[in-house]
Amino acid sequence: MFPGFAVSLLPPMKIQANGIEIEVLVQGPADGEPLLLIMGLGMQLIAWPEEMIAELAARGFRVIRFDNRDVGLSTHMDHLGVPNLWLATMQYSMHMPVLAPYRLTDMAADTLGVLDALGIGKVHVCGASMGGMIAQHLASRHPERVASLALMMTSSGSRLLPKPQWHVRQALMPPPRGLPIEAKVEHLERSMYVIGSPAYRPDPLRQRVRLEAFVRRSWRPAGALRQMLAVAADGDRSPLLRKLDVPAVVIHGDADPLVPPAAATDLVRKLRGARLDLIPGMGHDLPLQLVERVVDDIGSNAQRARVALS
């Protein structure tokens, strides 16, 4: 895929952004076009496949990824307490305001702070799942900073969209406290199987190694719950999307059980000039077999931004 290419990798760094610390990793040519990757609910920067990072860097991107607040090695928000998920579910189902410890707009401000700290003015942005929701806020609030927008397996937040089935939602619930590492890994394996791509099942050994690295690096289930409330509290972003004027691509699996594919066609209708890549057999993950296709989507969308500027 990228024979003989050596990826430049800066050491991980802690960046002060929006009053907190964010763990950041930068990879790729020093003079490359900056590309910001925003990960989803409860996920760390290592959730992006290294093969994807290397391919993006090989195509000339300076790839920036980071741990969102409350997960990974970024600032944890345990002082905000463990959310009452039952109460939040009731509030959401009754169309009442969901009381969240922080909002997706706060996380978008974190993201902007990372760009400011790195001295980056304009950036290509790719957000996955919750990261795509954060990216929508970033592009809406700071359109001058976003050159192109790639939204993966994400949603506008419209209440008219179909919801995941109950067993899928259950798969995202954190396990009981005090489990040994092996049990935590097994829990993640079961969760990823439920939401993952039925046509592109991962190699079991590779999957276990990656998930164990995930658990050993940082295990923050309460942080994931607080992020979940931030998503529930955010509401419908459709009015924001209709105002955007940025080259956009929507990447989604037609077998996504967590964010059903209707969310992708909804996004394309609301984003001016957006393109859709609806991938057969893809679920709510990023299989190795699809890395090159996703990188092609991101690259061609970035090219649209270059053409618009020329």
Helix/strand layout:
Layout (H helix, E strand, L loop, with lengths): L12 E5 L2 E8 L5 E6 L11 H9 L2 E6 L18 H9 L10 H15 L4 E6 L1 H12 L4 E7 L13 H6 L9 H15 L8 H14 L3 H14 L3 H6 L4 E6 L8 H9 L4 E5 L11 H19 L1
Parallel strand pairs: 3-4, 3-5, 5-6, 6-7, 7-8
Antiparallel strand pairs: 1-2, 2-4
Strand order of the largest sheet: 1-2-4-3-5-6-7-8
Q: Name the structural class.
A: alpha/beta
How far is the first residue's CA from the last residue's CA? Answer: 29 Å
Number of DSSP strands? 8
Q: Which regions contain 5 or more consecutive residues with pLDDT less than 50?
A: 1-7
**What share of residues are in beta strands?**
15-25%
The total number of structural domains is 1
- Radius of gyration, in angstroms, nearest whole number: 18 Å
Share of helix among residues?
40-55%
Q: What is the CATH T-level topology?
A: Rossmann fold
Under the CATH scheme, which architecture would be assigned? 3-Layer(aba) Sandwich
User: How many strands, what sense, and barrel or not for the largest sheet?
Assistant: 8 strands, mixed
**Average of per-residue pLDDT values:** 93
Q: Order of SSEs, N→C?
A: EEEHEHHEHEHHHHHEHEH
